Description:
The complex is a heterodimer.
Chain A: E1 9-22, E2 25-38, E3 42-46, H1 53-60, E4 68-73, E5 76-77, H2 82-86, E6 89-92, H3 104-114, H4 119-132, H5 148-159, E7 166-170, H6 178-193, E8 197-202, H7 205-211, E9 214-219, E10 222-227, H8 229-234, E11 240-244, H9 251-262, E12 266-268, E13 274-278, H10 284-296, E14 303-307, H11 311-319, H12 330-338
Parallel strand pairs in A: 3-8, 3-9, 6-7, 7-8
Antiparallel strand pairs in A: 1-2, 1-4, 4-5, 9-10, 11-13, 11-14, 12-13
Helix pairs in contact in A: 3-4, 5-6, 9-10
Chain B: H1 2-11, H2 13-23, H3 34-51, H4 55-79, H5 82-115, H6 117-122, H7 130-157, H8 164-192, H9 196-212, H10 225-233, H11 235-248, H12 253-280
Helix pairs in contact in B: 3-7, 4-5, 4-7, 5-7, 5-8, 5-9, 5-11, 7-8, 8-11, 8-12, 11-12
Amino acid sequence: MSPSSTDDLAIEARGLVKHFTSGKSVTKAVDGIDLTVPEGTVLGVLGPNGAGKTTAVRMLATLLRPDAGTATVLGHDVVRDADKVRSVVGLTGQYASVDEDLTGTENLVMLARLYGFLGGSARARSTELLDAFGLGDAGDRQVKTYSGGMRRRIDLAASLVMSPRVLFLDEPTTGLDPRSRNQVWDIIRVLVADGATVLLTTQYLEEADQLADKIAVIDHGRVIAEGTATELKRSVGQGAVHLRLADSAQRARAAELVATVLGAEVSLANDPYAFSARVPDDGGPAVARLLPALDDEGIAVPEFSLGQPSLDEVFLALTGQPLDEDPGASDDETIEEVA
Amino acid sequence: MATEQTTAAELRAPEASALREAVALEHRPGRPSPVSATLTYTWRALLKIKHVPEQLFDVTVSPIIFTLMFTYLFGGALAGDVTTYLQFLLPGILVQAVLFTTIYTGYTMNNDITKGVFDRFRSLPVWRPAPIVGALLGDTVRYTIASIVTLTLGLVLGFRPSGGVVGVVLGVLMLLVFAFALSWVFTILGLLMRSPNAVMGTSMMVLMPLTFASNIFVDPSTMPAVLQGFVDVNPVSHLVTAVRGLMAGEPDLTAVTWVLVASVVLTAALAPITMRLYRNRS
């Protein structure tokens, strides 16, 4: 974040603002966002529907002119040098899509030509990408016949025709089944391993946790927290210990012991063998003493785990509201922001 | 979870290496010329005709219905006999057929916007007007098809233009030039309106009065003075007069000049507005 590291930043946004006026009401879609993404890293932009994620990405990808603030991608200003930005970024989102009426091959050949591949080399590039994305057999089919997972892969392939150094992925897995989602994640991991810089928006906590080096939490057009998944989780406390005993008759005694050692309240699970306790802020060393203490009392603990708080809890702690995880609702954001 | 991932990654190892190779692009081509980019978009428009031939249905069927309907329902009453009326009507109905086809320009553009295809185009480093100019050029293929269908039907029914092949071809070219210029009206509507159907509805509202309150179907001299006044300034009337003259082998140079000037003015005024809307569309 220090200004001296500007050289290595792939994406830098300062005070980005975008307000939409419809009639007399003004929607502050993006209300002063700062973002920095060092080259070769993944920034996860996490937020609920309507938080401003899509609008922010559209500004960074030169599709939308900011009302205020500045942003650069690989040193190119997104307003003044928009064309240079366009030649180094790839974009995949619900709004940047391929043509459903055309076949997979036709879509990729068209994009390859638009990026300057001539004649046969455009076709070769298309074949190479289709094969790499496991769509080799589907190249001659219209995209409208593709399944959701194939559709997302052709969208990704379309944004990689030029092997962009910076990739914007706007909710790349929203609405996908778990198998297709894992495929998309694998693709993203390969791209990142190859040195691409990725800005990924998501409303899935697990996705940000799985893929992102850093996470920026957005709500109401502002960044309300930024850090690694671990840092964000730590900011709301140390998490909790979960225990499962061999003998349910020992639970009351074990719970009492844990409460004493940790100095924290214990909550008993419905399962008569299990209970958990929140770890207080300075409770680290006490956690280490739990197992020997239980062992001294002759209580067998076949299952013991220390879990960090979920990002759900992080969001709740930051905003006072739980994250809305309904994937079907994500369309609302697009309509609200794009229309 | 961790083990699952490893297995998945191992299973797809060949694919992952193909992906790595595909991404490691050795040779980056330079950006395409404006002409090449525009023609690529034209190619796309033609591919869409190939994949969605239904879109030609309106282009072909409605001129047929209109020609048959007006020729046989009103021909005898208006001009004494059907064949005489057809000589008058056909160039006019041709103009109407092509002008109605221009609506699709706005319709398809709006469809591209709502489906997200346009944003993909906007994110590419190419000459900015290329997607629009390319689409308009592709649309002229549709206009040509509408012209050929209408003319063929006319010839079958007994249309015998004295201007010959040259006169007919010149008439059609004149029409295509004006249709291209008029399309910019619909690109603007396509960029402004919220849904493809809204574009369709609004465009019909614009074109209906323009085509009916003109000299397409009847000689305006029998109309009330007020209406005559409108017909005289209606650009469609001038276009019809120009096309009729060329096809009859008696070109009306005033009308021809008027149409050419109007085409240039329309394009010069509306193309920049379209581009502005295209650039700033949120």
